Each structure stands twice: as C-alpha cells, then as structure tokens.
Amino acid sequence: MRQTRLTVETRGAGLYEFTDAAVRFVREAAVEAGLLTLFVRHTSCSLLIQENADPDVRRDLAAFFARLAPPADDPAMAYLTHRAEGPDDMPAHIKAALLPASLSIPVSGGRLALGTWQGLYLFEHRDHPHRREVVLHLA
Predict the structure, then answer these.
(1) What is the C-alpha to C-alpha distance for residues 2 and 47, in angstroms, rounded to an integer?
(2) Does domain 2-138 bear CATH number 2.60.120.460?
(3) pLDDT tens sequence across 80-105
(4) pTM, to two decimals
(5) What residues does each domain of the chain span?
(6) Which of 12, 4, 23, 5 is nearest to 119 (CA)?
(7) Could you give the C-alpha distances from 49 to 31, 59, 74, 90, in angstroms and in order?
(8) For the segment 65-79, what is each residue's pLDDT rounded down to a tens digit?
(9) N or C: which end of the chain has fewer CB within 10 A?
C-alpha cells in the first residue's frame, strides 16, 4: 500500500489534467495489480475521468457547467443565500455536489487501466487560482 499527495495549481475555473503524475506514482510503486483511489480535499472542485485528445471537450464541459450553475449575481441564481465568499463560491459548491470528489482506477500489468483517450482531471469550479490537493492511494 502506498499513498502520496499531489498539488494541482489552478489558474481559475477549468479542467487541469494530472494523468502523468498518477502514472508516475503507479510506475514508481511497482505494483502489478491493484486499485488507485484519488480523493480531492476541497469542496469547490471535482475529479473527472475525461477525454484528453480534443481540448474542445474540456471547453464544452466548462461551458455546460457554467450555464448549469452561473455566478450568484446572475438573476437566475437569486434564490442563493450563501454569498459571503463571492459570486463564484456557491455555484462551485453546486458543481462539486454533482461531480465526484473521488475516483477509483484499476491497476493492471503495472499500469493504470485507463482507456486510450481517458485522462485524469481536477475540475476547478472557482474563478481565481487555487492550490488543490489530491490524495493518491494505491492498494
């Protein structure tokens, strides 16, 4: 069993790929078969397995979730009461409630069993830069 913490520096809302860091962690562990669990230690971002070939996929996902939960100062969000941390905060919590905070990926043959176009992403829901921490646990 091995565990590490990975810091993902964000520049604002969007998807940030960290597949290479997870691949390196599994390779260095030299485990033939197992399960990699990832957990993000924050309430206003999420983890995703998503296509890593076409950047339009990431842009479209970000645009969809921006329409789904616009900033709190948008008239459609007038019902929100939590506004103390800015207009992007409560919508970030809504997005994080809909998307996973953890992922599990099988390790087979010493490698992550991801599909050809699958990558690991931290989905930042806040507008400003953050340092996000992801725990990687290999068992």
Answers:
(1) 20
(2) yes
(3) 999 999 999 999 999 999 999 999 99
(4) 0.96
(5) 2-138
(6) 23
(7) 21, 15, 29, 24
(8) 999 999 999 999 999
(9) N
